[in-house]
Amino acid sequence: MSEILDIIKSFNCECSCGVKHTTSIKDIQIGSGLVNKVGEILKNNSFPNEILLVADKNTLKASEGIIESLGGFNVSFKIYDELRVATMNEVEEIELLIKDRDIGVLSVGTGSINDPCRLASARQDKMLCIFGTAPSMDGFASYSSPIVCDGFKSSYPAKSPEVIIADTKILVSAPNELKSAGFGDMVSKYIGLIDWQVSHLLTSEIYCEKVAKLTKDAVDELMEMADKVTENDEYTAGKIFESLLKTGIGMSFMQNSRPASGCEHIISHVIECLELEKGKLPNLHGDDVGVCTLEMLKYYGELARHSEIEAVKENVNWNEVYDFYGFMADDIKKVNHPENIVDAVEPQKIKDSWDNIVKIIKSMPSYEKCKLAMEKAGCKITTDDIKKDRAFFNKCVKYSPYMRKRLTLLRLKDMIILK
Ligand SMILES: [Zn+2]
Ligand SMILES: [Zn+2]
Fold it and tell me: Model pTM greater than 0.85?
């Protein structure tokens, strides 16, 4: 599937949005049986002769044949038992193994394995290849790594891999719950695209139609395949991976996560941070994100049923916000003071732009349509499905917009008075 490489090349010019869309990704290979060609692909992309293979026991087992394919390379290994949450310890461990040597990193897995590899390779300036084993989240092409440090999960600037490989035979054998989670992560892009456009409208934040289309087309295409997601269908598994990859590339083109994440990702992040603090292991990213997406599609859909609104200045009880965030309160303060993301948003502008905001919401599929597709794809649908107490979930929704310096339609909830 060299289609994605063609897409990347087509962006390699000055864009009317004003951003120069570049990415360090040189090669993307998605196909059946590619596990036997990993060495060949690395060689073709001028990887050094020494390779550190990073995996966990599950992902290595799933990738049978990968070690044999590396004949001719001098391979060392860092194999974790199971890595559900990537911490700074792993980053430093990997850094030690690649420091001061001419070595490339081959990260075998999805999500938590790739994140420390991305950051360690960036810090030590090494080439990185990601061999994806499950189509479960959209971070493959990402330039940043979510890492837990001192109990707090934050995103560190890292690097996109030079090479991304996926064997559709392995993707299709991934557990169904991973494929469904990947689907849930994709549907969330509709909310991300609404939030991005609303912010562009109200704050003139840079918005790129071309990148937004790349994301939207990828989700639209996947929505049509919803009923095949949990089937043993190699083509669909490859397509989910490809879609996740496209949105990841969109993010790397914008150097931010606007094209692929909106208020639903922030809510899910709040849930994860608060639960991590209590020592609770997070759900699959796409499961939480998918449920948050449906909740927000429902809310945005309700907003769009109002043809007129009143708008007022934001009035937040900050003490209540900081109480909710507890150990994170200091970080939340920094995000909101002295400047606030809604300072620049005049209520009158929201009122005057309401027609356009409604149009933006209606340009994406409805809650009902997305829910149906997600049911077909075996996704988690309700807060019960993701085992969240409803009162806790509602609080996370309510306070989530203060976590980031980023305008979303959800952030405007206190400014919009429905008629
Ligand atoms: Zn995501
Ligand atoms: Zn652009």
Answer: yes
